[in-house]
Amino acid sequence: MLTFEKRHERALLSYLDVLGNRDAVLTYQQIQGLLFAVAASPEPVRPIEWFELIWLSDDPQFDDAGEAKTFFQLLLELSRHIDEEARGERYRPGVDAEGRVSAAAMVDWC
Predict the structure, then answer these.
(1) Which residues pair with 101 in a beta bridge?
(2) Is the pLDDT higher at 52 or at 36?
(3) Cβ atoms of residues 27 and 55 within 8 Å
(4) What's the pTM?
(5) CA 21, CA 84: separation in Å to the nearest integer?
(6) Which of 9, 22, 64, 94 could crosslink 106 through cysteines, CB 3.0-4.6 Å?
(7) Can you say how many angstroms the Cα of residue 97 is from the centroid of all Cα atoms in its chain?
(8) Mapped to the 3 state alphabet, what secondary structure does the chain carry?
(9) What percent of the chain has pLDDT over 70?
(10) Taking a C-beta distance cutoff of 8 angstroms, is the pair 84, 43 a contact?
(11) Contact of 34 with 26, CB cutoff 8 Å
(12) Distance in angstroms (rounded) separating the CA atoms of residues 101 and 110
């Protein structure tokens, strides 16, 4: 079973916090909703196709290529985790960073 480790989740949340301050980007819960839709798609969706959907305006602005690669790898790991959890009927949408189901998280996820 793949897991999305808490340290990776914290790293992704940190990237999203920084990116959200300078770019228009989906929130963590919105990204989870998008990745669930990708997992549920009847046709395969390549990461390069969904990756550009998380930006709400221009392309992302990273300080260096290493940051961009790390961010992309974290998203790929989250995508694989959501796909595996969804296929195993274990995925729980709307769970916040503390593991609780919250109305606000569910709204963003949708």
Answers:
(1) 95
(2) 36
(3) no
(4) 0.86
(5) 31
(6) 94
(7) 12
(8) CCCCCHHHHHHHHHHHHHHHHHCCECCHHHHHHHHHHHHHCCCCCCHHHHHHHHECCCCCCCCCHHHHHHHHHHHHHHHHHHHHHHHCCCCCCCECCCCCECHHHHHHHC
(9) 93
(10) no
(11) yes
(12) 13
Q: Return d(Cα 72, Cα 59) in angstroms, integer.
A: 13
Q: Could you report the per-residue pLDDT of 41-84, keeping only the tens digit for each?
A: 999 999 999 988 998 876 777 888 898 899 999 999 999 999 99
Rounded distance between C-alpha atoms, residue 110 and residue 102, angstroms: 12
User: How far does the chain reach from its first CA to its final CA, in angstroms?
Assistant: 25
User: Which residue is associated with the tokens 């963003």?
Assistant: 108
Give the largest CA-CA distance in the chain.
38
In the numeric block, the tokens 């300080």 are attached to 63
